[in-house]
Each structure stands twice: as C-alpha cells, then as structure tokens.
Amino acid sequence: MAVSNWVATLAIIWAGLSATEVVGALLGLVYVVLVIGQVRACWVAALLSTAVYLTVFYRAGLYMQAALQAYYMVVAVYGFWAWRATPAGTALPISRASWRVQAVGVLAVLVASVFTAHWLAAETGSADPLLDSLTTWGSVFATWLVAKKKIDNWPWWLVIDSLILVLCWRAHLYPSIILYALYLALVLIGWRQWKIDWHRQSATSTEAA
C-alpha cells in the first residue's frame, strides 16, 4: 500500500512538471557546479537560469523571488566582468568578508525582510510573505559575496537554500525541490573546495613574497 501511494504521488508530480521549470533547474545546477570550480562561464549559466526562473516564481505567486531573479541577472553580468583575468593572467582571488560586513548584512536582511513581508501581506497575493522576503534579501547579500569571491558566501547559501527548499515545497515546485536539495550538497562541496583553493592561494602568495 505504501509503495502504491509513492507511485501515485510520483505520477502526480511527473504530470505537473513544467518544462520551463526543469530547464531553469538544470541551468541553476550547472551554475553552482561551475562556481565551485571558479569557472567564469558560471555567470552565463546564471543569467540564463535566472531569466527562466523569473517567470516560474512570478507564476507561483512568489513575487520577491521573481524580483530576485532580475537582480541575479544584473549580478551575473557584473560577476562575469569581475571574474575576468587581468592582462597579467591573474583572476580575482578568494578572500574573506570581515565580521563587520557580515553583521551589517544580517541586520540589513532582517530589517528589509520585515518591511517587505508586511507590504507583500497587505498589498499582494504572495504565497509566503515572510519566507519569500527573508530568502530574497539573504540571496541578494550572498550573491554579492559570490561576485566578490568571498568564501563566506557558502554558509549563507547553506541557510538560504534550506529555507528556499521549504518555500518550494509549500508552492509545489517539485523540480525546484530536487534542485535545492542538490544545492545543499553542492554548497558543502563548494565550501570545502574553496577552502582548499584559498589555502593553496595563500601558500602560493607567501612563497612568492
């Protein structure tokens, strides 16, 4: 009986899949994999993925997430420029964000989330005003950290992606649920890999000095 229920549930999910959402999810996955490897082309995948997801989230009534995609598109262009190699052949190095920067980030995210959640609840048909706002503003700051190649972006994404996973579940965005579950695993891999690259980079700089 339990197996038949699972089969029935999977059949319902499959029937409700949106080709647009699947494409956006796959492009988003490509983006994260390329970010882990610090491949500049990650920003091209980001631009395409966010263009698709802008439509997906808007149709789902997650207006802050939809607006976030527009921001992502702008940052994708900036990130592609910021991650360029210099004439000397060196790329933007990995660095850390100071505790002051992160403290300001946390405060700004919380304050902005309260205001936008109140506005969404009063003026729109948002499906989840508070969680939508919190994940949106958190993503704004975390994406800025990625564009600056701050290693601290990974713990931010660990929290944000966990919350977005809940948000997608509530909105019945099943391909996105799978995507964000994969994101959580990739965040841990990315965090570890950037730490290795950061220490290697620091060692190389010390030897050069």
> Mean pLDDT, nearest integer?
83
> Approximately how much beta-strand content do the residues carry?
under 5%
Shape: globular
Helix and strand string, N-terminal first? HHHHHHHH
Structural class: mainly alpha
What portion of residues is helical? over 70%
Fold and architecture overview:
The protein has 209 residues and is mainly alpha-helical. It has one domain (20-85, 97-203). 80% of the residues lie in helices and 0% in strands. The protein has helices at residues 2-15, 19-36, 42-59, 63-82, 99-123, 129-147, 153-170, 174-208. Helix 2 runs antiparallel to helix 3 (42-59), helix 5 runs antiparallel to helix 6 and helix 6 (129-147) runs antiparallel to helix 7. The longest helix has 35 residues, at 174-208. The termini are far apart. Residues 9-16 have low confidence and may be disordered.
Question: What secondary-structure arrangement, pairings included, does this model have?
Answer:
Blueprint: H1 2-15, H2 19-36, H3 42-59, H4 63-82, H5 99-123, H6 129-147, H7 153-170, H8 174-208
Any key phrases for this structure?
single chain; 0% strand; mainly alpha; globular; 80% helix
Summarize it:
This protein has helices at 2-15, 19-36, 42-59, 63-82, 99-123, 129-147, 153-170, 174-208. It is mostly helical and 209 residues long. The radius of gyration is 18 Å and the shape is globular.
